Amino acid sequence: MDQSKLLAFINWLIDGARSADEPSRTLYEACVRLVELGIPLWRVGIFVRTLHPEIYGRSFVWRSGGEVEVGSVDYGFQDSRTYRDSPISVVAQEGIAFRANPQAPEAERYPILMDLRAEGVTDYLALPLAFLDRQVHVSSWTTQAPGGFTDAQVEAIRSLIPALSRYTEIVTLQRTASMLLDTYVGNSAGERILGGQIRRGHTDTMHAAIWLSDLRGFTPLSDRLPAENVVEILNHYFDCQVDPIREQGGEVLKFMGDGLLAVFPIPEQGGDPAEVCGRVLTAARASRARVDALEYAVDGTGERFRFGVALHVGRLLYGNIGGGNRLDFTCIGPAVNLAARLEKMAARLKRTVVASEAFAGTCKESWTDLGEFPIAGFSTGQRVFGLREEAG
């Protein structure tokens, strides 16, 4: 094996694999280069734990002659028999290398090795990818070459593991930061924060449709139920809204007790306010149907729920607000204030969906003018509109 070419490959990894624009492409190029160096790879896999509220880990698998397949496993996988009976669990838990011949009788205790035996694999090598925080992730390497990997080929694979670990760790940290920001502040805000908009006072204006909702009767409900039940109810309740909001292009900015604030940005160039507001209303109707169908068993009976949502459209200020080094990426302004006041009007008017005059005028629907009402903080009364389908 040409050691100078192997060193050049390792330096390519250390330099960030700049010819590849994403991790799956990096794995593809790496495997192709290693085959060209004389390592007869058949299948290579990388399994990395994630810090994600729903996904336990991600896998990247390359096969000779194919592209890289990217997959994920949910929480609970680590407790499954599939994981416990795999070499990956041995490597991840003990931080040691694992090598076996799938054609040997002793390989029969591992189902994955039986699958590889059927593919004609003659050698399986799993190596730990150790991160600086002491977490251990896993790489696996297989070949169909008669007799398996040679000692020189195994040594070559082992020599590139430190560089592969550092590359994988950097990519994982970047992805983790992005996922956490997306989870806790929303996608658009996360992109801005990662882009460097982190100082207090960094703000922009945005033209957007605004969604502000809350759960009816939440206070008495939380008083009479154990806290863990209240949390479970809130999670189910928010599920009824978050998916429809995101499906229609909205972004959830924050949860405030039983309240939810979301925005649907209207592009400054070529944006169609009517189209965006139409999607907002679609999300509102879908959320209403889901909340109506939500039932939770309390004291042997089925508890049903109602919520209210106020819709408005206008310009808002969007950015970092807070004190010292504790900031919140949020939106403020008269438009947000009006949405908050209208949301309170929804309960008073016994409506699920209410809209401002600006929203109703933009989204041409079957609206009913519910009248003009004095709104705290506004010098003039504001007209409130409700969906005609909710009348009576």
TrEMBL record:
SUPFAM superfamilies: Nucleotide cyclase. Pfam families: Guanylate_cyc (PF00211). InterPro entries: A/G_cyclase, Adenylyl/Guanylyl_Cyclase_3/4, Nucleotide_cyclase. Residues 209-343 form the Guanylate cyclase domain. Coiled coil: none annotated. This is Adenylate/guanylate cyclase domain-containing protein. It comes from Bradyrhizobium ontarionense.
